[in-house]
Amino acid sequence: MIPRIQKRGQRTLGLLYYLYGPGKYEEHTNPHLVASWDNNAPDPGRDETATLKQLQQLLDQPVENIDASERPKKHVWHLSVRNAAEDRTLTDEEWGDIARRMVAAAGIDDPKQGAGCRWAAVRHADDHIHIVATLVREDGYKPDLDHDAAHVQAQARALEAELGLRRLNKGDGTAAQRPTSAERHKAQRQGRERTAREELRETVRRAVAGATSEEEFFDRLAASGLLIRKRVAPSGDLLGYKVALPDDRNKDDEPVFYPGARLAPDLSLPRIRERWTTDAAPDPDPAATEPSSRPVREGPAAARRRAASAAWTAVLVVEHGDEAVAAAYIAATGEVLDALAKTSAAHTRRELRDAAFAFERASRSHVRAERGHDRALRQAARDLVHGGPALGRGEDGASTAMAIDMLLFLITAAVHWHAKKGHAQQAAAARQAAEHLRAAYQAAAAQPLGALYQRGRHLGRPLLQRQTAMLREALPELAVRIFAEPGWYALAATLADAEAAGHDPAALLADAAGRRELDTAESVSDVLVWRLRRTAELPADTGDMVSGGPAARPSARRTGQQAPRQSRPGRGGPQL
Domain range spanning residue 57? Predict the structure, then answer.
C-alpha cells in the first residue's frame, strides 16, 4: 500500500472536477465517495441531485468562516492511497475504513480529539482512493500536520498486515524521489520506457562514475546530450546544477530542468564533491590501491580484470570493515555497476543496466559513507569508462564474465550488510540487482565457459586423472559437488593452463577456495575458474590457449620481465 501526499493546492473545486471526471486517459470509472467527515455529505457520483459545487462549498466552509488574512495560501490537502497490482480488490467499506485511519494518522481529522478538518475520500478505480481535505478545522484552528507523510506511511504498514496485502519495506528517507503520476503519464505519451526524472538520474550517475573533477563531470553530462544549467554565486563560485532532456518540455515548450538533489540525495553538487575532496584519506587496505608491478594493459578487458580485483578486495571490507568505510565501498559499487553497464556489449547491456538501476537504492543509507577509502573501486569505474566499449566476445567478453562473477559476491555482501542493519529497502534493492547480474553473467559466460568445457573434455586421460586426485586432496569437502557440475571440465582446463604457466595448481585451488565460503555459490566450479584465472593472470578468453596449455610464456610478474605479446593466425591482433 503506497500513500502519497501530493502538493497542496488552492482550488478545491478543481481537484474535485478531476477526481469525479473521466481522468486524463478515460481511466476513471464509477467515481463516488467511500467516506467523509460527514455521513450525509453530498456524493455527486451516486446522487443525481448532488453537485460538485455543493461538495466544494461544504468542504471549504471552515476556511470561509475565518478572516481572509488568516486563511492558508494553499488550503487543499490531497492524499492518494494505492494498493499493489497483486492485492485483492477491497470493498468500499474497507476503503472507507482506510480513509478514516489515514486522516486520523495525518492529523486531519481524529474523532477522539474533537474538532477536525473536513475531508472526503473518492474512489474511481479498484486499486486506489483519493482523499481531499481543507486545512482549517471546525473550530477555526489550523491542523498540526508535522510529519504527516511519515505517519500515513506507518499507518499503511499496519493496514497491510491487517488486511493481508503486500507488505512493503519500511523506508528510511534516503530514497530518490519517485516520479509523479503526471511524469509517468507523460512518459507513456512520449513512448519512453522510463520517466524523464529516471532517465536523468541514470545519466547523471553514469557521468559521475569514476569522475575526478567538476570539469570532467560536466563534460560527461554535455557529451551525453543533456541540457545543463549551473547556479553560480555572485563571487563566481559554483553552487549547484540542474539538467534536462532536450525533448522533455512543458506546455510552454520549455525544457523541464531537475536539480541534482531532486534526482537523488547523493547527486547534489556538494555530495558529489565529497567523492573528489577525500582522495587524501588513508585506505584501510593499502594493497587495494598499490600500483601493480605488472605492466598496465589498456583496453576494456584490462579494465574489467582490474574491476574484478577491486571487487574481490571490497568484499572483505564490506563484510568485516568499519561501517562508514563499508558504506563508502557499497556506494562506490554503484559507480562500478554504472560504468560496466555503460561500456558493455549489447547481449549483457540490458541486464547490467537494470542491475545498476536497482542497486541505486542500495547505495544510500543513514550510515554516512566515509569517502576516500573507496578509491580502488572508484578507480575501477574510471578505468571501465576510459577503457571504452567492450566486445561481446574474446578477452573482452570473458573478462566481463569474470568481473560480473566477482561483483556478484560484492553485491551479496552488501545484501547481508544492509540486512544486519535493518535496511529493508536497500537489502531488497541489492537482491534485485543480484538477480539481474546473474542473468548478465549467464549471457557473458556462455561462450568462454563453453570453450573451456570443450578443452577440458579433450584433456589427456592421465592429466585428467591427476587433476581429479589433486582436487580430492586439495578440496575434499567440495570435490564431490564439483565433479557433479558441468563446470568441472572448465575447471580442469583452467588447472592445466595454470600448471603450464608455472603455477602450483593445488596451492592456487586451496587459496581460491579459502578466501571466501563457496557453499552459497550456484556453481562452485565456475567461481573457481574465474578466481584462478584472475589470480594466475591467465587469459580470460580461452581462445588465447592451445590444447596443451597457454600459448604465452610465464607471466612477467614471476619472471621480472615483460612477456612478449604473441599473435595467432586469424585473430588479427596481439594476444594478452
Answer: 2-163
Q: How many domains does the chain have?
A: 3
Residues 6+ apart with CB under 8 A from 71: 63, 136
Are 58 and 134 part of one and the same domain? yes
- Output b/e per residue, 500-517; b: 16+ Cβ within 10 A: bbebebbebbeebbeebe
Give helix 346-359 / helix 196-208 axis angle, nearest 10°. Answer: 100
Regarding whether 467 and 537 lie in a shared domain, the answer is yes
Q: Residue 157 maps to which CATH number? A: 3.30.930
| DSSP H or E segment with residue 258 | strand 258-259
Instruction: Give every CB contact of residue 160 below 8 A, 6+ residues apart in sequence.
Output: 1, 166, 167, 168
Amino acid letter at 280? A
Close Cβ partners of 415 (under 8 Å, ≥ 6 residues apart): 427, 430, 431, 434
Q: What is the pLDDT of residues 265-320, one digit of tens each?
A: 999 999 999 888 765 444 444 444 443 334 344 689 999 999 999 999 999 999 99
- Together in a domain, 309 and 390: yes
Q: Name every residue whose Cβ is closer than 8 Å to that of residue 537 and which is 6 or more positions away in sequence.
A: 294, 555, 557
Each residue's pLDDT tens digit, 48-105: 999 999 999 999 999 999 999 999 999 999 999 998 878 899 999 999 999 999 999 9
Contacts of 34 (CB under 8 A, 6+ apart): 92, 93, 95, 96, 99, 121, 122, 123, 129
Q: Considering just the CA atoms, what is the radius of gyration of the chain in Å?
A: 30
Residue 182 has a CB neighbour count (10 Å cut-off) of: 10
pTM confidence score:
0.73
Query: From CA 293, how far away is CA 296, in angstroms rounded?
Result: 9
Instruction: Write out the E strands in 59-191.
Output: 76-82, 119-123, 128-134
Residue 517, in any domain of the structure: yes
Q: Which three cell numbers stand for residue 356?
A: 545498476
My answer on whether 472 and 325 are in the same domain is no
Tell which residue, 199, 203, 219, has the closest CA to residue 211.
219
- C-alpha grid cell, residue 129: 482512493
Co-location of 28 and 149 in the same domain: yes
Burial class of residue 495, CB neighbours in 10 A (0-12, 13-18, 19+):
buried
